[in-house]
Design a protein that fits this description.
The protein is of the alpha/beta class and about 350 residues long. Helices cover about 35% and strands about 25% of the residues. The radius of gyration is 19 Å and the shape is globular. The termini are far apart.
Length: about 350
Amino acid sequence: MTVGIIGYGAFVPRRRIRLEEIAAVWGADADSYRRGLQLHEKSVPGKDEDTITMSVEAARRAFVRSGGVDPAEVGAVYVGSESHPYAVKPSGTIVGEALGINPEVHIADLEFACKAGTEGMYLAQSLVKAGEVKYALGIGADTSQGAPGDALEYSAAAGAAAFLFGADEERILAEVVATYSWTTDTPDFWRRAYMHYPRHGSRFTGEPAYFRHITNSARGIMEKAGLEPEDFAFAVFHQPNGKFPIRVGKRLGFTMEQLETGWLSPWLGNTYSGASPMGLTAILDVARPGDLILLTSFGSGAGSDSFVFRVTERLPKVQELAPLTRVQLDNDKIHVSYGEYAKLRGKIRMAE
């Protein structure tokens, strides 16, 4: 059975804060952070933008590109995030209700740091492949947070990506060629109960965590699929900052031309569970039939999911039916001051 993406969509908040704004408040050297993180600005969620609302908007765009799939035919919805609005109330039930999917559906909220989005994608395509459901929706969304003054504050951002999977050959935009996961117990990043912000193992988050897992996962899926870096038109990796995905891509043998289309973090920031999935949406916006795409996520704790997709003849027909990811990223931006950013960032605790 051929399974693939039959609809996709992304949502990028309009608000941004420049790296200089954050650095100025803490008396930090903005140029040093820019060089070290290769970041310029990041997205900031508005007071009515959270994991749920962004997931709904991204998913609606996926349905627009699906060619008329009835939401009531979707048999599973998985929302991956580490910033679900409720600790006990699920996000997925609200998303499903808003989309018209409920009630005959399996729904779950997922969390595996920054790879919760690809977890949802993996489960969605697997259920379709197994014949358990006709269509399944996998979403990665976050309004990620970093402690004031911490290095994470310069990158933690907001955004969402949604993918509708199915086996209708006439609807498939990008076929799933192969999947692969590589996971260990590597405690590089964590947040205990009642902590507002996560903590990280500083430089330990690099080589032992991010680079080790992505490298092994990407090499594993290429070996499984019998492919080499030069066989791919595009590759996208988890984007905690602007530097890491380019470094790991080149280490694996990919060129800048293959990497730059899905490389959003310098202007978007790290959208955690949405990071690599949003990069994939930017690639799908411009990919052509026959193109092979490699996606490898990373989640602290730690693990990486990898996918190989092959673009079909149908994709170019639907690309312009919903807002393109790069257009959302580059146009109609509203830059905010640190004061406005802090007010928006603290809205949940203020409401409590």
